[in-house]
Amino acid sequence: MYGKAFAPEYQGELGAALGVNSSYEEVLATASRARAEAGTALERARAGLAVAEANRRLGRVAAAGDAWRDSYRSGRSAGDAGAMAWALWSGGTLARQCGTLPLARRLLTHAVALADHGGDRLAHGYALAGLAETGRIQGDYAAVAELHEQLLAQAREHGEARHTVWAMSGIAQMHRNTGEYDKALELFEESARIAEEGDDARGRAWSLRGIADVLSVRGETERALALLSEAEAVCRRMDLASALAYNHKMRGNVLYRAGRYAEARDTYTLSLGEFRAMEEPRGEALSRLGLAKSRARLGHDLDETLAELAVLEKEFARIGLRHAGAMVSAFRTELTARSAPGTPAPRCDATTLRSPAVPARS
C-alpha cells in the first residue's frame, strides 16, 4: 500500500508549504523568500536546495549550480551531513542533466557517503538512485539493474509512491531498450497507476511517455501521440522544462517511426531549441540525431548527413552514451548500404534503434 507522493527535497517549513505537484515557478518564489529570510545556516541550506531543484527543472542551469553550491556550504556551516548530502544529490543530478556524467557520479558517490554518515535514509536512497540512473542512461544495464531492483524493493517496503514510480519506470526503460516490450509496457503501466493513486502528476507524465514509446514501437501511433499530449499538459502546468523537451523529442521519435518524416523533423527542431535554451547537451545531441535521420529520409545530402553523424558520434562518446553511439553506427551503415548500387530503398515504416532517453529525473 502506498501513501501520497511527497517531495523530500522540500524540507523544514517548505515541506508544509510545497508539494510534489507544486509548479516550479511557485517553488522558486517560495524557496527564494525562505532563503532570504533564513535565520540559521541549516534553514538556508534547506531553502537553497529547493531553489536549486526549481531552477534545474526550469532549465536554468547556471542558477541551479549556484544554488546547490550555496546549499552545500550552508549545510557544512551547520555541520549537517544530511543537508550536505541533499545538496550534492542536487548537484549530481544537475551534472547528469548537463551531460557531465563523470562529475555526476563523483558528486552522487559523495552524497551517498554523507547521507550514510548522517543517517538520512531518504537522501541515501535518492543518491543511490542517482547513481543507478546515471549508469542506466549510459546503457550500463548489467551494472545497475540489480541496484534498481533493490531501490524498488526499499521504496515498496516504505510505501513511497514517488520513489517506486521512479525505480519501476527505470527498470521498464531497460526492458524496453533490450527489446522486452511486453514487460516494459507492463511496468510502465503499473508505474503510471501508482503515480496516479499517489497523486504524483510528474511521475505519471514520465510513465505515460514510456507507455507511448512502447506503443509506438508496436505501431499504435495515434494512441501514443494522445498519451504524449496528456503528459505534455502536465509538464506545462508544472513548468517542467526538461521533461517537456524530452516529451517533444519522444513525439519526434513516434512520428519518425510512423514514417511521418516532415512532422518528425519539425518536432525534433522544436526539442533541439528547447534543449539548447536550457544548456542540456544530452537532449540536444539526441534531438540532433533525430533531426539528421529525419532529414536523411527526406532526401538530405548524404555526405552532409554522414558528417553530422561523425560529429554526433564523438559527442555521444564524450558524454558516455553507449546506446546512442551504437545507434549512430547502425544508421550510418544503413545509409551507406542504401547508397550502394542495386540496394533497395528502406520501407517507409522502417525504424532504427533508439537511445535510452530518460532523463534526468525532472
From TrEMBL:
PROSITE patterns: TPR. It comes from the Bacteria. Residues 338-362 are annotated as: Disordered. The keyword Cytoplasm applies. Its main location: cytoplasm. InterPro entries: Bac_ResReg_Asp_Phosphatase, TPR-like_helical_dom_sf, TPR_rpt. It holds the Pfam family TPR_12. Signal peptide: none annotated. TPR repeats lie at residues 165-198. It is found in: Cytoplasm. Keywords: Cytoplasm, Repeat, TPR repeat. Belongs to the Rap family. This is Tetratricopeptide repeat protein. It comes from Streptomyces siderophoricus.
